[in-house]
Every structure is written in C-alpha cells, then in structure tokens.
Amino acid sequence: MAQLSKSIDAIRIGCRQKITLERTREFEALAEKIKVSCPNCGATNNYPLGLTAKKVICGRCKYPLPEPGSVLELPAGQASAFFQSARLPVLVDFFSPTCVPCHMMHPVVDSFAKRRAGEVMVVRVNVDQHPQIAAEFGVQAVPTFVVLYKGYERGRASGALSEADFALWVMSKI
Fold first, then answer.
1. What's the burial of 43, exposed, middle or buried (CB within 10 Å: 0-12/13-18/19+)?
2. Which one of the listed residues 15, 38, 41, 102 is annotated catalytic?
3. Section 126-134 average pLDDT
4. Active-site annotation holds for 99
5. Which of 30, 46, 87, 109 is most buried, most CB within 10 Å of its CB?
6. For this structure, is 102 an active site residue?
7. Torsion region of 26: left, alpha or beta (phi above 0 gives left; psi -120 to 50 gives alpha)
8. Catalytic: which of 41, 58, 61, 99?
C-alpha cells in the first residue's frame, strides 16, 4: 500500500511539472514581442508573437494593429498621418496595377517586410487610386520606393532591383 501511495504521489508531481512546463512555454511564446507602429495614431506597440486567433489593439487609441511583417495598404488620409507619426522607419512602395516591374517587385517587398518585421513598417500605395499621395512625394515613375523616418525622407529609388540590392539599399537608409 505504501508503494502505491508513493507511485500516486510521483504521478501527481510529474503531472504538475508537465503543466508548469506547458505554461512556461506558452508564457515564453507570448514574451517574444515585435515592434509595430499603429496605422491610426503612429504609436509604437509591442506585438506579442504566438497570438494567432486574438486581435491585438493599440495601447493608445485601441485601433487594431497589423500583423508584423505584413504590407499595409492604407486609405489616403490615414496614410499621410501614418507617415508623419510613425516612430519606426517606413518603406513606402508606390506602384501601379498595370506596371510589370511593380508586379515583379511585390514578392521582393513582401519578403523584405517579413524578414525585417519589427524594424521597418512597409506601406504599399497604389498611385492610380491615390494620386494625391504620389503628387505629395513627387513620384513620377513606378515602382518608386521611399524610406521615411519620423516624417522625413531618408532615401528614394525608382525601378526594379534584385532582392539583395533592394534589402541593402533599404537598410542603408534606415
């Protein structure tokens, strides 16, 4: 009977350790965070990784935050305000749906956004739908890429680039 009692106690301790270990892993997954700028107010928020089914909101304005590594397509009024207020560097991709080099650059820009999540916010602007934003930046050709930091232009490039050249160019401007 004493051995049975010891066996039951060992099983209880093992279960507790397993539950504690699972909770620790969940906590560690939530502890990993990536910086994301709010598209509404520009505040920098820590986006917890590991939350797939939950909606994460801005701590300042309660606006839903974009998933890290995603390419944003913002409305005209919100885009201009975001460019001025974002505390993370912003890469703006000016494109046209009829432009073949623009379509060639989409996977390059998407890949860059995923690899540099938390370091750079990427915004895609359709110049046919938002000509006022393109005019504000003086965009005369597409694709044009503009790197902004705290509302100031840090660099500009036009035309298609290889993935390596593109990543090096963007990181040199941040």
1. middle
2. 102
3. 96
4. yes
5. 109
6. yes
7. alpha
8. 99
Domain spans in the chain, listed from the N-terminal domain onward: 69-173
Domain spanning 69-173: which superfamily?
A: Glutaredoxin (3.40.30.10)
Report the C-alpha gap between 172 and 174 in whole angstroms. 6
**pLDDT tens digits, residue range 30-72?**
568 899 999 999 899 999 887 667 889 999 999 999 999 999 9
- Tell me the backbone φ, ψ of residue 139, rounded to 5 degrees: -75, 125
Q: What is the pTM of this model?
A: 0.79
